[in-house]
Each structure stands twice: as C-alpha cells, then as structure tokens.
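Example 3.2
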Amino acid sequence: MKKNIFVLSLFTLVHPTFSAAQTQQTIQLSAQNIESLGIVQGKLIRATQIPVLYAPAKVLIPNNNEYVVSASQAGIIHQLNAATGDVVKKGDILAQIDSPNLLSLQSNYLKSTSALQLANSAYQRDTSLAQDGIIAIRRVQETQSQFNAAEIDMKEAKRLLEMAGGNTHSPENLSSNLTIRSPISGVVIERMAIVGTRVDMLTPLYRVANLQTLWLEIAIPQEDIAQISVGDQVSIDNTPFTAEISLLGQSVNIEDQTILARAIVKNVQGEIRAGQKLNVQIKKLSKQIAFRIPNSGVAQHDGKAFIFIHNDTGFTITPVTIISKQDEETIISGPIKGDEIIALKGTAVLKANWLGVGSAEQ
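Structure, written as tokens:
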C-alpha cells in the first residue's frame, strides 16, 4: 500500500500537460521520476517479417533425393557393407552377391565381341576385293549387313553386362562376384537384406537418401490458407533453420479440414531428421515499415493502441497500428522513424498518468 501512495505522490508533482481528451499528447516526467517509476526504455527493432500462424509439420525426404538400391541379378548375398544410419559416398560398395547369371552375361559379351571382330574382318576384306573388281558389290553388302548385326549384338550384350554391374573393361576375367554400389552420396535410411539369403533380380537391398534438403509438410487450417503464399518464410521451433513455402495444396483433408503446404529446408546438417514432427511458424515479408516491440510496450485505450516515445521533457503518446501479436511480441506500424526511444516496460504507469488516474489525488 505504501508503494502505491509513493507512485501517486510522484504524479502529483508532475502535472501532465493534457487530459485524454486534449490534443497535445505528452506526459512530462523528469529522468529521476522515470527511473523511480521503474519505466524501462529501449529502441525499436525493425520487423522485416510478419508472423502469420503456428502449425504442426512433418519432415519428409524429397522424392528425387531417395533411392532404392536393388540387386541387378539373382544370387546369394555374401557381404553387406553398410548399416542403417551409415554415411556413404557415391560409388561406395554396399553389397556383394554371388551371381551365376553374371557369368552368363560376361560369356555372351565375350562371344559377341569375337563375332564382331570376325564380321569386321570379313567386311574389310570384301570391301578391298570389290574395289579391285574381284567380287561383286552385292557380296560387300551382305558382309556389311552381317557386320552391322554383330555390332548390334555386341552393344546389347555390353549394355546388359553394365546394367548387371559387371566389368566391361576386362570381361575375360570371368567372375560371379556382383558388386552393388551406392548411386548417390547420402545416408543409409534402411537395410532390407540379410547376409546369406538368396535374392532375385530387382530385390530391394537398401534405401539411401540425400538429407541435405528436406521437405516440411505443414497442415494449414482451411480458414487460414488465404493468408499463406508460395515464398513465405517458415521458422522451425528450437532450431536456427528456416524454410520457404514451395507448394500449396489444392484439396482439403476430409478428417481435420486442413490444407497441405510444403516448405523446403536446406543444409540441415543432421539437426532435422526425416519422420520428425515439428512446430513451425509461418511469416510473411512485410510490405510496410513495421517494428517489433514487447507486448508490455503497447498501451490500449478505447480500442486503439499507443506507444510512449521519449522526448526532452518526458514522453509523447503516439497512436500505432497493431499488425501482428505473437507470444510476448507485437508488430506495429505508425508515424515512427525507427530511431525513437520508447517505453518498453512501465507503460501501465504512464497510461494511468495519461488518463488522469495519477493526478486524482491533487
């Protein structure tokens, strides 16, 4: 009770220069009185983004960043070199399979290569004989056709061997050992094979993903979707990372009446994980000059908002527009330059003075 009497007594010494109905909106306070009343002052902070809403989100791997590594030929798995969670580089050996089919492909490639060499020799010989007039042109055409067919067979056998993971540089070294390599640099998301088991062609062995870019799938209430646009920024709770809205869904989830918004997160460096559920805040770029201040720096009166700007004799009461209010922070705009010093705390005392509460005891 003594504290309240002290505050009121200060106001009786101040004599505000206006009432709530007057036009000159200033409060005269000395520096000593400002300190005694516990009024905390500070600078305005420019707001480049306006908070729109909070929403839950799920972390997903982009479709083109995830690969399923399969067995290119049937056989028996005799070695698996990677486990779930391992970081791998493009070309690293993931598995080795003993595949009899690989021997057949190597043999076919060798045979087709030999047949091509033979057909080429015949074609070159007949071309030379035809130029000397020894044989007819028709004979050259026949051997050329045989050469073309042999070349096609060789290319087909080579491609099949390459697809199977076989060695086309030295195919004469026949081997049934099939090497499975990682198609990308990334992380092993799942191992789907067991050593010693038989697998068929195209049996999945691993899932490998590049996690440097992830998707956030955000559930936006349908009544709020009009506030969201592609390009809006998304901040993720408890992380330094931000994302950007890249897609807005065109249908409503029938169960919870939300619309999908997708955001892209880059360079997450392992702090955000696929499958994780997060809380995010969507923000829009400010199209007007706006400032961030604590909620305690705004005074409300008759449905309007005001701030108290410090001047040489005390404070000037300035009307402002509240653009957004989130948690403990308010975004405002108004006739403000940005270099003003304002009351951040103690605005209730200033408001009481302004409305004549403090001078009521005079």
